[in-house]
Amino acid sequence: MATKRNHAYKPDYTVPPGETLREALDSLSMTQRDLASRMARPLKMINEIIKGKASITPDTALELERILRIPASFWLNLERKYREVLARTKDNERQRT
Fold first, then answer.
1. What CATH number is given for 17-96 in this structure?
2. DSSP for 54-96?
3. Is the Cβ–Cβ distance between 52 and 18 less than 8 Å?
4. How many C-alpha atoms does 37 have within 13 Å on its Cβ side?
5. Contact yes or no for 64/49 (Cβ under 8 A)
6. pLDDT of residue 78
7. Eight-state DSSP code of residue 28
8. Residues 45-56, mean pLDDT to the nearest whole number
9. Which one, of 12, 30, 3, 31, lies nearest residue 89 by Cα?
10. How confident is the model at residue 12 (pLDDT cuts 50, 70, 90)?
């Protein structure tokens, strides 16, 4: 009897959505300070999103959509996938110990 194999791609790394945000800002020649000013948010918050330390909330995603013209759903999906991979990695590490 043949064994069914699961060949789903499961990367062992993840890229924070902030990397995509940084690239979007670069392509628009916009600085983190410019974005923070346009969003009326602290520069530190933008920097923490870019570093993957702060999450992109639904409100933030809507502001990014308004300013960058990139759909809020895109930002929220990146965030969800990023946090899921982090949780799976943490869970896998717990199971190994």
1. 1.10.260.40
2. S---HHHHHHHHHHH---HHHHHHHHHHHHHHHHHHHHHHHHH
3. yes
4. 5
5. no
6. 95
7. T
8. 95
9. 12
10. low
